[in-house]
Amino acid sequence: MLADKRRVRLVLLISGVLIASPVLAQSAGELRLQAKQVAAEIATQKAGGTLDVAAQQRAIERLGKLSLAFIELCDRVANSGGESRERDGLRAAYEAVNEPLEGLYTQNSNSLERMAKQVMDADGDLEALYDTPAFKDAQVVATHSLYYLNWLHFYGARLYDGAARRELLEKAQRGFSEFAVGDRRTELLIESLLGRGLCHLELGNVEFAVHDLQAVINDPQTSAERKAKARLALLDGYVRSGNAAEALKLSDQMLGSGGRAQDNLIRFLRARALLDAAKKAGGTEAERYRQQALSTMEQLRKAGSGWDEKVAALLASSVDDPEKWAGGASSPFAKWELAKLLVQKGDYKQAAPLLEGVANSTDADLRKHQGEAHYFLGLAKFQAGDYAAAAADLDVALQEDKPAYGADAAYLRFKALEALVAKDPGQAGLAARYEQAVRDCVEKYPDHKSAFEAQFRLGELLQAQGKFAEAIQAYAQVQRAGDAGFALRAQFATLQCEFELLQAMNQHTPSAERTRLRGDIAAGLQQFDSPAAQYEQRGGKTDSVPLGQMRAKVAVMKAVQGTLQSPANDQAVLDALTGFEKRFPDQQELLPQVTRLRLVAYQHLGRFADADAEVQTHGRLLLAKDGRAPDAKALEELAVGFVREGARRKNAEGPAANQAAEQVALRLYELLVADSEGGSKTKLTLARLYENTGAVQKSAALYAEVLQANGDSLAALRGLGRTAETEKHLPAALGYWQRLTKTARAGDLPWYEGSYEVARLTQATGKTQESCAQLQQLKPAIPGLSDADLRQKLDALYKQVCR
Questions:
Q1: Is residue 213 a contact partner of residue 194, using CB atoms and an 8 Å limit?
Q2: Which residues contact 195 (CB under 8 A, 6 or more apart)?
Q3: 690 touches 705 (CB < 8 A)
């Protein structure tokens, strides 16, 4: 219907006036506002029944002017290279103008279709229908609307992506085709061919586009303006189709033939053609194309900020091998853009010289990029393992005011300093720099994707400084925002800090605070196993998370928690440490503490056989590498604890329990005097334990060793006297007791004890009269003896010997 000759003549009449209408471009906001006003008036008229043909024509005239203003505005924005910045505003303006215009077109097109259908159903005369006023009125409005809609859809399509963009282009292409009919060349037909060619070009139908565009260019009636647009579109077509030779030839002809704005578009298309030609060529020819492309882009970049952005984006999207371009880069722009491309490819070796040039340049255009250049240099040097230089460049980069790369630079700086600290922790000032870098990363960029790692490192620093409460707060941030590995490590470190805080508490600490902290520790220990298992099941990296070590230490913590209960839960201690060696074979450094904890628990539970086996298996672990006890007092206290526990159980459980406990104590004392080392007091205690457990010879040897070192040792003389008698060496035993009475001060308890033993052993050797004489001589001094048991023994011996 729309191809009807009568309608074509009508279209020519209407559009001939419209095309000649001069329009001044307005802002997108103004266009949108005015279009909304027209739409509101149309709605009011429609509701009031006054939207007749004349009213519709007036509305179309106003909307047509807004359409042309929109097109002019789009061209102006495109010529400045600012499409991306203006896209949202332009789209809003397009939608505001298109909606009422599309409504008028649809309303009248539907009327035409309805009238034609009614005539056809009645088998009537369509030619007669075309001459009716109603049909003519609807045709005028529909055609008038379609003219503007074609161009409006074409320009509007640029503001959308995907299916929406294609739909608008196809709609515009169909509309232009309806006007591109007739045998006589008219401005409307030429304009429609131009519009259809542009649509074909955007839709990717390059062959069809070239056909229409060349028809426009070759037509002698085509205006200079339309011919220029067609040639520019044809150049675009050559570029899109990869015909670099024709594109370069045509661009050479076109440059300088139009205004500055058109020259910018031509240079942009020429740059695309040169980039494509450089990819396809080789050797010196490719290098020539690269140099021309860089020169063209440099010239275009100076046309304005919009073109600067477009050229940078073009270079980034078109250069696959920036290393081939780097050597020929001479302009500051080229050096900077190629350096960024090399960084994106990870080619830091090629990028570094270009980045150094940017960072040290005095060029005004490069100053705004120098901070980012230092950031990229820091990244390059970090990748190369030069952490000191990386940190220095990143320091410079972070001096910029709120740089876009700031978060990444801050993170990278702390990682560089972290590597330096790990290598040389004692370097002057390095630790302070590292801590400040960590704090900057945490405080200034808390939303960085790896901020949790910086929080964790801050927690480690605070923990190392003994600031356990602050460290716990830092670790809490990690657990809330970090990845599973760091969250697990933070949970473990929090437990360590809580134990430290609990240990530091004293009698002045409020009981409620101690209770709360114990509760936190208990909850933390209970909650650790589940996330640890989940991490392991997900295949977490155990090289970054020492899962086995943490589990081993948590087991120890659980045991320690058992000792902190009141009373101590010794069974919980043993439960936590059962099979520790098999569960954690790589955690040998924890076995001394594990051994001590188990021994104390065995002691309290009276499990002396288990304790004895523990000492035999792991007792040496309680000693330092040089064979000496790292804390002799602690080890001796442990041994004394067994002696006391055995004595306490002796009455209830019998002497066997006591002997079993002393056996454990004996083994612990043996560790204290290993390799003939240890003080006299320790040796004497061990000798007595040997004596009590039946190892008389070992006992005597130790007593003799002490006596050799100290000839006046009453304890050694006493022990030697007992052991000699045990071995039936009565004369020797008598001699030791005689020596003791001579060494002890007369009237002291040891002197009485020695005198008793001398008299008893003298009688035992068969010298009863001599023994009696000794007792008679001692009798006057007995009233001064305060020890009732010994006085009773002396009285009983006197009655036995001197009867």
A1: yes
A2: 150, 151, 154, 172, 176
A3: no
Q: What spatial distance separates the first Cα and last Cα of the chain, rounded to whole Å?
A: 158
Q: Tens of pLDDT along 497-538? A: 999 998 888 877 888 888 899 899 999 999 998 888 888 888
- Rounded to the nearest integer, the mean pLDDT of the chain is 85
Task: For residues 100-119, give the mean pLDDT.
Answer: 86
DSSP reduced 3-state for 615: helix
Separation of CA 559 from chain center: 33
Residue 616 CA to residue 611 CA, distance in Å, equals 9
In angstroms, the CA 784 to CA 410 distance is 86
Cβ pair 487, 478 in contact under 8 A: yes
- Of 13 and 448, the structure prediction assigns the larger pLDDT to 448
Task: Tell me how crowded residue 683 is: count the other CB atoms within 10 A of its CB.
Answer: 23
Q: Please state the length of the chain.
A: 803
Residue 297: in which H helix or E strand, if any? helix 283-301
Distances (CA, A) of 575 to 78, 86, 581, 595: 77, 71, 13, 13
Q: Which tops the pLDDT comparison, 105 or 81?
A: 105
Give me Rg for the CA atoms of the chain: 51
Q: Tell me if the pTM is above 0.70.
A: no
Q: What is the C-alpha separation between 462 and 435, in angstroms, rounded? A: 10
The single-letter DSSP state of residue 783 is: G
Task: Tell me the C-alpha distance between 315 and 278, whole Å.
Answer: 12
Rounded distance between C-alpha atoms, residue 723 and residue 725, angstroms: 5
How far is residue 154's CA from residue 515's CA, in Å, rounded to a whole number?
A: 75
Question: Nearest 5°: phi and psi at 221?
Answer: -85, -5
Contacts of 770 (CB under 8 A, 6+ apart): 762
Record the tokens describing residue 749, joined without a space: 């308890």
Token readout for 572 is 């919980």
Tokens of 549: 């070590």
Round to whole Å and give the CA distance between 584 and 466.
Answer: 28
Rounded Cα distance, 636 and 203, in Å: 92
CB 691 within 8 A of CB 639: no
Encoding tokens for residue 781? 């001094």
Q: Which of 165, 242, 237, 230 lies closest to 193, judged by CA?
A: 230
Give the separation between CA 291 and CA 632, rounded to whole angstroms: 81
Q: What is the DSSP string of 330-379?
A: -SHHHHHHHHHHHHHTT-HHHHHHHHHHHHT---HHHHTTHHHHHHHHHH
Band of pLDDT at residue 166, cut at 50, 70 and 90: very high
Per-residue pLDDT of 589-620, as tens digits, reads 999 999 999 999 999 999 999 999 999 998 88
